[in-house]
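JOB MANIFEST
job_type = single_chain_structure
chain_count = 1
residues = 177
[input]
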Amino acid sequence: MRGSLAASLLLAPLVVTLAACGSAESGQTDPLSPVLNGRYDVVTWEAKPLPDTLRVIAGNSTTPGGPSFRCPEVLTGATLDVASDGTLSRTMHLAYPCTGTLPSDMPDTLTQVATGTASVAGSKVTLTIGPTTAGVSGSFMEYGQIRGTDIVIDEVHSGMNFGSVESRANARVYRHE
């Protein structure tokens, strides 16, 4: 009994080491590691800390002297949840600190949720994130690396057929909670 337990304890690290080496060297997508699974806070977006103004929505009346408005769309917070099966959801919290006479359908705040998948090959990560609203072609593919407990995205492809490409060091950083 003692000999079989000792043999099992000696072989266990070898099996784990061989399994990890085999999948990383073969270039195949690894099962998601426990480090990647979980919840991540978005700490930078487009290489800037949050809160960050994503765009400005503005409108001017066609009537001289008529109402106009200006609404910055501010990303106030976001999370990325990655499951062990590779599915993910990204929740973005937006605020609209507007000025002027607003359209009746303009919200003060908005929460958008998009779903997708995550894949890992060695330390490289690919996130495929679908549109936040059905029928909208705002899909993203994000490429980056695992650095410690962060997912650091350096390249973002967006739009239909992922035609728009943005490469920026530390464009998006997702930090594991």
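[summary]
Residues 8 and 20 are 18 Å apart (CA to CA).
The chain has two domains: 1-30, 34-176.
exit_status = 0
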